[in-house]
Each structure stands twice: as structure tokens, then as C-alpha cells.
Amino acid sequence: MPPTPDLNPWPLTVATYNIHSAVGTDGRFDPKRIGTVLREINADVIALQEVPLGGNGRPNVLELLQQETGFHAVEGPTEDSARRRYGNAVLSRYPILQSQSIDISFGSREPRGALDADIDCHGHPLRVIAVHLGLRPAERRDQIRRLLQAFDTDLAPVILLGDVNEWFVWGRPLRWLVSHFEAAPAPRTFPSRWPVFSLDRIWISPRHRLQHVRAHATPLARIASDHLPLVAHIDG
């Protein structure tokens, strides 16, 4: 008889990566380089920010990365016009059952969003919310308040991950997130060549399932984008 396949997804590796429109610190547009970094990480679920999604003859970088990884993919555009499509995305080794974009734009600031995806990890449900928050404190405070409301009645494990753009360790948005998810390690990820700030974060509820968090600081990752990928291991 053939061996029974291992359908236990744990431990799961998740990552968040602001790919800076696939433009590296050398100023070169190179989506394949981003794809190579993703293969280095070998994560099961990846949240991406600043992803070109096509429009007006521009390349759809998510499609290229999906081809590079062979993963399932969903997009969450924050800009969706004939001129340009751009925003968040999730890549997953496991099927993505459904997804929705959450508009968290603030006033006249640059449009921002969160991509909320339900993933089936061999029968184990997982909810992933990939975010990219704004640059101003008042903007982030409003966005975090709105995001936390989305978690109030959740039954499945929830992972919130992305570029939170929070420079202030004791800023209110981070305090609110820690109150909801409990504290989590925050390695420095920006700028990628010499990281000083922990702009990229991964939280999970329940907290005890978060086993290890690290920045992926290989030579290629230091040049492929202005952010380093952040990687976490999640246990069942």
C-alpha cells in the first residue's frame, strides 16, 4: 500500500514582505529577484505589500511571483484604475477559500487596505490579514481601530501581518495591537541594507502558537527590496 500522506500542516512558516514594487536598493526593477528571495524563505503563506498588479501595459508582478512559487494567490488592490493596479497580495501553499479587501484609507492620504484571506491548511482553518498602514500617526490609529473591530467574533486562528509603518515603539497603534494579540518579537527590517526600524510585524491569536520570528537577511534580500522579509514559525 502507498504511504499515507502527511496532512499535518504544523509547524507552518509565514512571512510578510514589502517588495517595494520589485525595485531593489540598486534601483533595478527585477521581480525574478523577489521570487528567488521567496524561494529562499520557503514559507507556506506570504503577505506582500507594494505589489504592482498590472494596468496600462505594466507587468503584473503577482502573476510572475505566482509562477515562480506555484502557490495560490489573491490580490487586494489599494489603487485600481486603468492607469495602474497596485496594492497587497497573499501567496499560499494551501488553498485560499475566500478573501476580501478591507478599505482602511484615511481622508485624502494615499489609499491603504488590508487583505483578509481564509486558508484551508489540510482541514485546519487559518485566517490571514495582510496589512499596509499609513505614514502618519493619526492615520495608523484610525486604521488599527478599524482592523481590530474585524477580529471581535473570529473563531479560527488569526494572523495579522504586514508593514505597519510604526516608527514609535510606544505609539498607541502598537500598544493596541499588543493588548489584543500580546507582545511578539520584532526584528529590524528597514532599511534592508542596514536595518534600524521594525516596520514589519507578525502577530497571531492565540499567541502561544507563535514559536519564532526572524528577519530574512541574506545578501540577495538586502538588495531585492528596501525592506527585509519577516518570517515566523507557527505551531499547532
From TrEMBL:
Q: Does the keyword ATP-binding apply?
A: no
Keywords, in A-Z order: Endonuclease, Hydrolase, Nuclease
Q: Name one GO molecular function term.
A: endonuclease activity
Family annotation (InterPro entries) = Endo/exonu/phosph_ase_sf (IPR036691), Endo/exonuclease/phosphatase (IPR005135), GPI-anchor_lipid_remodeler (IPR051916)
Pfam families the UniProt entry points to: Exo_endo_phos (PF03372)
| Start and end residues of each Endonuclease/exonuclease/phosphatase domain | 15-227
Supply the name of the protein. Endonuclease/exonuclease/phosphatase family protein
- Annotated organism of origin: Herbaspirillum lusitanum
